[in-house]
Fold this protein.
Amino acid sequence: MGSIQALRGTRDILPAEVGYWQLVEDTARQILSRALYQEIRSPLLEQTDLFVRGIGEGTDVVGKEMYSFSDRSGRQLTLRPEGTAGVVRAYVEHGLDKIGGIQRLWYQGPMFRYERPQAGRQRQFHQIGLELLGSGSPRADVEVIALASDILRALGLKDLSLQLNSIGNRDDRQKYRTALLDYLLPLEQELDSDSKYRLRRNPLRILDSKDPKTQEIARNAPSILDYLSKESLAHFEQVQYLLTELGITYQINPSLVRGLDYYTHTAFEIQSADLGAQSTVCGGGRYDGLVGELGGNDTQAIGWAIGVERLVLLLKELRPLPGLEPDFYIVSKGEKAEAQALKIAQILRSNNLKVELDLSSSAFGKQLKRADRSGAPIALILGDEEAQNQTVKLKWLKSAQETTIPSDQLIADPTSYLELR
């Protein structure tokens, strides 16, 4: 029988790469915690209707990309394709919308979409996201944008651009949709096949088509900014003012509409010039109608999601990870010596030291060669003599200097010997 391999569009994250993922997760957690965002964990599996109602039946995500199926009870279920709808469902189900005030939440974990796999884009992909619920202030928009920028810059990313747009309220968008259709319908035969599919279902998505000819058509389309109400325009201008006050540069991009129906007003993406065509590392926007759409009290809200796979691709190019070299490598041979070595390893580890214990029972020479390759500064050597005398031999691997000391002396102050390296 042949070996079983991972499904297309999924991948194993091996130990050599996991450190980058941990770096991203730890950096996000630290920065979001300082801004008093609390982590929320929602299920990977939800009722399909959550995404049909929340994301929109006319979107590519719902129409083409979701992993949906019937379970044994006949319920229609879906592996979550994005994080916001599930967080909002939890927000409503547990009455957080009735508490009042602002809820600052963040999440992390896998999402699922049936897309063509490519670098940084898998069918099982991972996001870190936040949701700020309960405020319609432009300051809320800028707070979440600033936090995303803080995370990316703390990770060492520099060549970033913030793309910014407003898609107004629902009335603004409906007026714009009519104008856009008036422009596009006479050109229908010139559009790519995906855009023809979107034309009557979700024409705003045509604006961010990747097809060159459709992009050329979209460049001459009406601008949504010309269809904003006074209130929507004032909100957008205040967002721009506050970003400028924080020193965050941006580019207004009227073609930026995002792919989900729940967005209103501010929409944004943070892009990296180092990622090629799939340049977006963070995207989000305001969604003032979604809580009400899912059965909660009308609640203004804004959020974003960072794509972890794309971010890890960038980090691999930008920075090496610190090594996992042990502080001590323990070499031992003989029944009593091996038992003593295990005991010493556990005690040193409990003191926050990194210790690799050779488990091979092979000759001392072979174990010491592995100690050299490990990158540890010191090898601890225990044989029958050391076990009998309750001592341990220390060998500084670069200089080959050796000394023998009582085991208790090492355990009492192990870091002092590392300082002698």
Observations:
- The chain has a mean pLDDT of 92.
- The chain has two domains: 15-169+229-318, 328-418.
